[in-house]
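Database export, one record per block. Field names are fixed; values are copied verbatim from the stored entry.
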Amino acid sequence: MIDRIKKYLIDGEGETLDYKQEISSASKIAKTMVSFANHKGGVLLVGVRDNRSIAGIRSEDEKYMLDLAASFYCKPEIELELEEHNIGGKVVLECTILEGELKPYSAKGEDGKWWVHIRNKDKSLLASKIVVDVLKRQSSNKGTLIKYGKNEEALLKYLEDNDRITLQQFRKMVNISKWRASKILVNLISAGVILNHTHEKTEFYTLV
């Protein structure tokens, strides 16, 4: 068990691992939880500083805050696996979140609204409408039937010659509505033909 925690400390934060020195806000930690549930799952190490040094948790308050976040600030509710580890006389809390079966998961923000978050490298980012639709499609277990029309062909031809394209570039290129362009992108992502790349500034798409 201790070897696993040491490996987490060596690996550093990433798509499936996040360090928290303490849990001060249930709504903030809920964002990380749903981003893991919407992705491949992940582990929260509580009692660890960003520089990978061990601070230890101070009390049962951390467990309470995690349970509160998972129960009342995540929709659907997220089930947690909690395990304590004593390392050098300090307690580190390992909180495992499995990939969710009821995507998309959303977190209640400080504005009282529910927002879907996804994991990108070591950050939990707000999901775009296209990503939310892809998560819904994945969760529905329905196959994706693609009809390759001129718009799909134009998009794939463009991506053969160029590294990436944005939603705005695509809809302008083929002169269609944002709704129609989004639907085409969702279909192609769900079918595994193109990839979406979510960044803090601009979301773009590439061939698989």
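Remark 1: The two ends are 37 Å apart (CA to CA).
Remark 2: The chain has two domains: 2-125, 136-207.
End of record.
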